[in-house]
Amino acid sequence: MSLDALSALYAAIGVIMFWLALGVAGLVRVHDERFVFRILFPLGSLGGAGLTLVGLAGLTQPAASLVLPLGLPDLPFHLRLDPLSSFFLALLGLAAAGISLFSAAYFRKTAAAQPGLTGLQYHLFLVSMAAVCLADDAYFFMVAWETMALSSYFLVTTDHHVAEIRRAGFLYLLIAHLGAISILLCFGVMQNTAGEYTFASMRGAKLSDFWATAVFLLALVGYGAKAGFVPLHAWLPEAHPAAPSPVSALMSGVMLKMAIYGLLRVTFDLLSQQIWWWGVLALTVGLVSALFGVMFAAVQTDMKRLLAYSSIENIGIALSGIGLAIIFHAYAMNVLAALALIAALYHCINHAAFKSLLFLVTGSVLHATRERSLGHLGGLIRRMPWVAAFGLIGTLAIAGLPPLNGFVSEWLLLQAFLLTPGLPNSYLNMLVPVATAALVLASALAAYVMVKFYGVVFLGQPRDGKLNEVHDASKWERAAFVWLAAACVLLGLAPVAVIAQLDNVSQMLVGATLSGNMGRSGWLFVTPASPERASYSAPLFLIGIVSAVLVVFLLVRWVYHGRARRAAAWDCGFPQQTARMQDTAEGFGQPIKQIFEPFFRIERHLPKPTDERPYYWSKTEDHLWYWLYLPVANTVQWVSQVIGVLQHGRIHVYLVYSFVTLLALLLLIR
Amino acid sequence: MTRFLFSQLFQTLLVVLAAPLLLGWVNQCRAWLQNRSGPGWLQPYRVLRKLFLKDAVLAYNASVLFRITPYVVFGCMALAASIVPVLATDLPFSPAADVIALVGLFALARVFMALAAMDVGTAFGSMGARREMLIASLAEPALLMVVFTPSLISGSTALTTIVETLAHSRLAIYPSMAFAGVAFVMVMLAENARIPIDNPATHLELTMIHEAMILEYSARHLALMEWANAIKLTVYSAVGVALFLPWGIAQAGDWTMMPLAIVAFAAKMAAGGAGLAVLEAVSAKLRIFRAPEFLGMAFMLAVLGILTHFLLER
Known about the structure:
The complex is a heterodimer. Chain A has helices at about 5-30, 35-60, 85-105, 115-135, 140-155, 165-190, 200-205, 210-225, 235-240, 245-270, 275-300, 305-330, 335-370, 380-385, 385-400, 405-420, 430-460, 475-495, 495-510, 515-520, 540-560, 585-595, 625-645, 650-670, and strands at about 65-70, 75-80, 565, 600-605, 615-620.
């Protein structure tokens, strides 16, 4: 693309201003549903498409920076567009374009939420995420980061008359702020008493290993709270189902990636050194999150909670790639670091595409049926063929099946894992290949989870009579599906082109690219190390499958016949079949619950053989609530009660406190 | 180029067409071991012909997904047959997919099969889908661990390179491969729905896994499913042969070795099939919740293989 770096930066600012204008325009006619949803949101979608192009242009350019005369008097806003931020801007634009289109048909006017306000919050959320990517000083970054947290908090609590949603929103806000404090401290350590909060000065600073480690750990906690790494994941399965579906899609598809962006920015760009055990830590946290997320996804009975847990899994996979990149980079194996990093980034953009798509699919289902619980859905493929078709693409992609996009990033990551025996550390090169098993188990269980999701929602017999009257997706919704599904397919089919773009980011962060390894084998084959070592060609793979299927189909049709008739289902000859005899969502998750029982906290009531009216219930919860969150909450409560003793509400007592404090300070200072 | 294409086509067709023969041979051996005379090796072909000639019966609510799945599954298996080096290592299609992509290909077929099983909405269909996905998700890590040992030895995940290395360029005895080999057999039994995980000969309601998934299929659809299953068994055996007994597979460009390669392949398949029949005759089917232990053991063996490789062979 011919756009130079500075014009790309201006263009990005232009998109931000455009989104801001759309948000404010909604305030002019706050109650006009048609104006806000049918005009402003589709325009916002165009902005998203534009931002994707800007991001693509910025990827190939050197960094450009700009100082805006905004902010505090001696703290202006610094902006910078480099390949890393360009990549995440492109990701944001890609997902936002689809999600805004969908929102045009999704949001409704309710008593609780006025269209204009929803539009303002939504566009402010987009603006803040773009600003996070562009920020080049700690001050502007924190402003953008907090705007992101607040605007998404308001969006999550759109239906604030429901107590449960208010609780979910509060939990989200709480953990988001714990993370923000940690990020603030992280920047505080990095400015290293220089008093300069621009990223440029942080890049130049040389920290001792101790303080660099402190920075990394604070960043891991701070960004981990936003990304949902275990054990800071608790808000994710609460907030995502509570939010309206397009907002869930934005939060899961894009906002979690902003945390990955922050972590990469701090670890690879702002810090000048990496220590190998940081990578081991990140790898461990990533793999634990991946396994934890997928196991809990398998036992969920609410479709949006299921997807939320699956987001924890995917973000864990991305983090394990980053961990591997840190390990390789610490040992100066830069090409391998580039491979691991590219796998992680690839997984981020894949997840943005398929998770947004799937959340939008649940939005359409929710719209049509008003039902989120898997126990009341089923058989929708017959009533909602459009949604079912695009849902299938998303399902296959997220299950990591070739030739779609989920497979490519997992394949690259596995290749990176397989190259760890080259590490000059004898423990690492033995243990890391074995740790790969955790990654494979997570991705195999992801297939299990997605079969459950798709099978229970779209296949089988409807579990509820009202499902026979539902309507299919509207034109807006279909357009959004087409956009995101096309992204899934293209990212899967053109890995060579995608990796060529990601090379720019890896060049910037770890100083190496894969183009040396890829170049030898042309545009058709992905060869991360060398053609002899491993190669994969998605287009050939697709051609192979399609031609094999067609040949078989035509042969069977020509040689034999196409006769078929309809009859009642066979089912081993059982005469009566009702919808209640199918597996429920709970039944489908039962084997996982039984095999991995120690990981869940299960309360259940089993009927006795003598019960006149047998009933069964079970509740599956997270151990961490009881082991971590509640003890912490109780401690905080206790401490505040103790401190509360000081509080009387009488002014003269407070004056005594001030007097004593002043005296103490005077004594100390003297 | 045409020679390459010919070699590719020849191998794929050979595996696809000979797959029912392997199944017939295993069944025949099993019959002998059980003191029966058995229906003969060619029985699977007769069954397929019968099924293709019949009229298909579909459930009232069967969707498009249900109807296309047999073709997708068969197509996946045919593609798998063209990736694994069976006779020679010069396969033009082989660079398109390494062994990890092969595992992905099997997963693609499996997911379609499980979705189709849930489509009609019968009790057995969803039960089969659930169990199959469970077994597969536990078997897949073990399978990848098995594959890692030879790929660490040969420094590649491409099957052709592994075969070239193990059979031709670096002839040696690898103790790690013994562990991996045993683990591979265990995983293969699980993934191909054989005893002790599943019993291909049963339609007893509560023990079925694979059969429960294809219960609603009939006629040509069932024929394709059964045939695809036979190809899967053959391809799995071929992967086992390529990883653990690669001797006899012709080197790239070595056309004179072709007849020998065919004979070697047939002999290995015959021996493998007989071995499978013996294994099935001497073991009993496990309860479904014992399957994790079985696969866990396979996984640990594979990990031992990797550790042995690091400790002894480097």
